[in-house]
Amino acid sequence: MAELKDITNHDSILDQINQYHNLISLTADNLQDFKARIKELDNGNYDKELDSINSAQSKLYEALKALEID
Questions:
Q1: pTM of this prediction?
Q2: Contacts 24+ apart (CB under 8 A), 20-27
């Protein structure tokens, strides 16, 4: 990810936004994998935790949409 001091023009700003987009997307994917691992557990009820993860994923997807630049 570019250092903030490297933000000097339009292209560098778009590059930074793209890097944040990729980071958020990766985080959402990691949460999906995390949910799958939790669902494999057979030693308790994890509905509350899964609901929290779903909520976080939803917010991440909203952030991805907000960062889209046409």
A1: 0.82
A2: 20/67, 21/64, 21/67, 21/68, 24/60, 24/63, 24/64, 24/67, 25/64, 27/60
Token pair recorded at residue 41: 């557990």
Question: pLDDT grade, residue 1 (50/70/90)?
Answer: low
Decide if 7 contacts 16 (C-beta within 8 A). yes
Percent of the chain past pLDDT 90, that is, above it, reads 73
Report in angstroms the alpha-carbon separations of 19 from 11, 67, 68. Answer: 12, 10, 12
Give the whole-angstrom CA distance, residue 34 versus residue 28.
10
Determine the pLDDT at residue 3.
Answer: 65
Query: What would the two tokens of residue 57 be?
Result: 């994923």
